Amino acid sequence: MSVLIPMYNVEKYIGECLDSILSNKVQDFEYEVIVADDGSTDGSLSVAKDFEAKYENVKVYSFANRGVSLTRKFLLDKAKGDFVWFVDGDDYVDENVFVCIQKELKDEKDIIITVLTSATSNRKTWDVVETFDQDIQDKYWIQTPNNYHGTDR
């Protein structure tokens, strides 16, 4: 899986974002983290580069500001994983989110969507997983930490 992080002026948050992703330890679950700095003028790039130096599965790119759409396209072009997950540089993920994602991938889901579960003025948490099987029109699956259910549409 490729975790893709477009980054612009998030020096105060990018360390916690990367910590939350990299602290998810799941057996037999490999992932890469790709950060693209879109011309930040604060210390975002320096913080991200520190993580790149410490973790071999983190890669950081930097270029002049071109906007989030082109930055996301760049990230998709660099991704090597069979699945991709966009995480904003000012977000952080739940400590068990990869456990949920791994389970859904083993169940051969085609689409996994993370959902915002809490937010304050300066941080957002992503820890609920919605998944879809191949026949998206017929089934809708929701996984939360406390329950699991599917409903016919």
What is the structural class? alpha/beta
DSSP helix count?
A: 4
* Rg, Å, rounded: 16 Å
User: Percent of residues in beta strands?
Assistant: 25-35%
User: How many runs of DSSP E, i.e. beta strands?
Assistant: 9
Oligomer: single chain
Order of helices and strands: EHEHEHEEHEEEE
N-end to C-end Cα span: 29 Å
> What's the helical proportion of residues?
25-40%
The largest pleated sheet is described as: 5 strands, mixed
Q: What low-confidence regions span 5 or more consecutive residues with pLDDT below 50?
A: 117-121, 125-153
Mean pLDDT: 78
Molecular shape: globular
Description of the structure:
- This protein is an alpha/beta fold and 153 residues long.
- It is 29% helix and 35% strand.
- It contains 4 helices and 9 strands, in the order βαβαβαββαββββ.
- It has helices at residues 11-22, 44-54, 68-78, 97-106, and strands at 2-7, 32-38, 58-63, 84-86, 91-93, 111-119, 124-132, 139-143, 148-152.
- Strands 5, 6, 7, 8 and 9 form a 5-stranded mixed beta sheet that branches. The chain has a 4-stranded parallel beta sheet with strand order 3-2-1-4, sandwiched between helices.
- Helix 1 packs parallel to helix 2 (44-54).
- The longest helix is centred in the N-terminal third of the chain and has 12 residues, at 11-22.
- It is globular, with a radius of gyration of 16 Å.
